[in-house]
Amino acid sequence: MMMKIEDKDHAVGLPRQWEMEWFLTPAECNPQGRMPLTLLINRLIEIATLHANAIGIGYADIVERHHTWVLSRVAVEMRRYPGVNDTYRISTWICSVNRLFSERDFCIMTADGEVLGWARTVWGMLDTDTRRAADISYMAWIEALAQPGRCPIEKASRPQSPGEYTTEHYRFTYCDLDFNRHVNSSRYIELLLNQWPLEFHDANRLTRFEIAYLHEAYSGEEVEVRLSTAGSETRAELTAGSTALCRARLCFSPREPEVQAGCSH
Amino acid sequence: MMMKIEDKDHAVGLPRQWEMEWFLTPAECNPQGRMPLTLLINRLIEIATLHANAIGIGYADIVERHHTWVLSRVAVEMRRYPGVNDTYRISTWICSVNRLFSERDFCIMTADGEVLGWARTVWGMLDTDTRRAADISYMAWIEALAQPGRCPIEKASRPQSPGEYTTEHYRFTYCDLDFNRHVNSSRYIELLLNQWPLEFHDANRLTRFEIAYLHEAYSGEEVEVRLSTAGSETRAELTAGSTALCRARLCFSPREPEVQAGCSH
After folding, report:
1. Of A9, A214, A221, B238, which one has the fewest beta carbons inside 10 Å?
2. A174–B29: do the CB atoms touch at under 8 Å?
3. Range of A251's domain?
4. Both B137 and B171 in a single domain?
5. Interchain pair B27, A36: CB under 8 A
6. A45 and B27: CB-CB below 8 Å?
7. Contact B30 A220 (CB under 8 A)
């Protein structure tokens, strides 16, 4: 039985915001003693999943429709990343919903509530039978929980292909795969970050990162990493043959001071 | 002030065993829906660290001597790996201590206490000033907590170099590094497991794994993966130039039924 769009009673009493706290262990840190971007994005997915479960749009609620949530786009801007042995908090809320996508925003904070950065995500729904995008009109009632306009950073754009680019090749293999038997989306990000040496990461940090997930990748697949840099901004693309797997936009700034976020134009 | 070897009073009232419970999330699973070996070994290190802290031989207790624990050897035998959404438990205790090494054993269980497997580890102490092995006689009192003979699997041997071998090359890069600015020891294991395709891992599982960590590796370093297989047993080595980084021994068995552990001879 499909719920009607008007059926806003479903939202009554449900939490509009979800918040969690974590401790950043040494084992989780990158060589700069900070939270790696991959861990941050995993935490966003984790808290998004728990909020979705709490309001009744999680895996258990949609599995009988043979639907599953798919992360489509992410934008992150960080003034500072949590450091080793820091306690940090993330809160999340729905920003908007339409027939095909739901937008969800995040605030990343210190234990005291100081804002470290923000993230915006776009989620679609996959029909696991047809492997095509599913209509999510049946959950239009979550609009009653939405809090548009709270997140001050720009939405994730549709990243463009790099123009003139340099390339490197990589072949995905066993430990790149996850439970879905596809390449883990964190590996896409690692492959991008690996295009710069340690010394660059020591001198610079990522202030804004955007990624659009376009296609799944498989074990044994050889991919091309395409990069083009102009100023502080790099456009990147992973391709397998003629298929774009993801496109990304990375903005780096000199590491000190860790306050300026976004791309400098 | 050094404690005397006879000073066993330090052990009075301290926990001889430490036990923790975790939940295996889908995001943590390998393509077979099981706990990956790398996560298992990270969990062993985590619980070993917490037990060491609890009995007063942890990081906070040895840092003023400029000492740090170093994992030297690991042996794991698993009858079955925890599966997706399983709760699992690990308990750990000291097996022995001598002037240079401490042995620590582990039992991996289901939530109900059914034994899934065992692990044995050997730890040394590094002097962070001299970068050489440190004498740990000052903590000989922990022998009062030791429970030798509880773990039924063979100790980690000193793995041999492979004889005739096949090789593959890999260059360590930024995301292979951890907080110590050395290659994460989990990456050594991933590099070994990546030598077999998904189809092999679908058909076979690792019943016994041994690794000896011999040398740290750095960003940009090119390594050679050397393998030689005889029957169900593979000997492996990672080398950088003429330096052996680690040696390992891997025993695979057909995946069904998941009961037989160890190497079949």
Report:
1. A9
2. no
3. 157-265
4. no
5. no
6. yes
7. no
pLDDT at A265: 47
Give CA–CA dist A35/A141, Å, rounded.
Answer: 35
Which SS3 state, helix, strand or coil, does residue A105 take? strand
Asked if B53 has any chain A CB less than 8 Å from its own CB, the reply is no
Angle at CA B78, nearest 5°, toward B76 and B81? 120
User: Strand, coil or helix: what is B130?
Assistant: coil
Statement to judge: residues A45 and A128 lie in one domain: yes
CB pairs under 8 A between A and B: 76
Residues B179, A42: C-beta atoms closer than 8 Å: no
Q: Last residue of a domain, which of B124, B156, B188?
A: B156
Interchain CB distance below 8 Å, A177 and B30: yes
| Residue A169 forms contact with B (CB below 8 Å) | no
Query: Is the predicted ipTM greater than 0.85, yes or no?
Result: yes
Q: What is the CATH number of the domain that holds B213?
A: 3.10.129.10
- CB contacts, 8 Å: B220 with chain A: 197-198
The pair of three-digit structure tokens given for residue A103, joined into one six-digit string:
């937008």
pLDDT given for residue B27 in this prediction? 85
Q: What is the pLDDT of residues A206-250, one digit of tens each?
A: 999 999 999 999 999 999 999 999 999 999 999 999 999 999 999
Any B CB within 8 A of A178 CB = yes
Burial class (CB in 10 A: 0-12, 13-18, 19+), B1: exposed
Q: Is the dihedral of CA B44, B47, B52, B55 positive or negative?
A: negative
Instruction: Say if residue B36 is in the same domain as residue B146.
Output: yes
- Residues of A within 8 A of B190 (CB-CB) are 175
Asked if residue B221 and residue B184 are part of one domain, the reply reads yes
- If we measure between CA atoms, which residue out of B71, B76, B146 comes closest to residue B106? B76
Pair (A182, A252) in one structural domain: yes
At residue B6, the pLDDT reads 41
Cβ <8 Å between A198 and B178: no
User: Own/partner pairs for B184-187, CB < 8 Å, 24+ apart?
Assistant: B185/B41, B185/B71, B185/B213, B185/B246, B186/B38, B186/B41, B186/B42
Per-residue pLDDT of chain B (265 residues; tens, 9 = 90+): 333 334 556 788 899 999 999 999 888 999 999 999 999 999 999 999 999 999 999 988 998 999 999 999 999 999 999 999 999 999 999 999 999 999 999 999 999 999 999 999 999 999 999 989 999 999 999 999 999 999 999 998 888 889 888 999 999 999 999 998 999 999 999 999 999 999 999 999 999 999 999 999 999 999 999 999 999 999 999 999 999 999 999 999 998 765 555 665 4
Say whether both B219 and B88 belong to one domain.
no
Task: From B156, B178, B197, give the residue that closes a domain.
Answer: B156
Domain count, chain B: 2
Site from A170, A179, A180, A204 to mutate, B interface, most B CB atoms within 10 angstroms:
A179
**Residue B177 at interface with chain A, using a CB cutoff of 8 Å:** yes
**Do A8 and A129 fall into the same domain?**
yes
**CB-facing half-sphere around the CA of B191: CA atoms within 13 A:** 29
Q: Do B33 and A179 touch (CB under 8 A)?
A: yes
Which residues fall within 8 angstroms of residue A224, CB to CB, at 6 or more apart?
A167, A168, A169, A238, A239, A240
Chain B contact set for A44 (CB, 8 A): none
pLDDT < 70 regions, chain A: 1-9, 257-265
Question: Looking at the structure, do residues B120 and B193 belong to the same domain, yes or no?
Answer: no
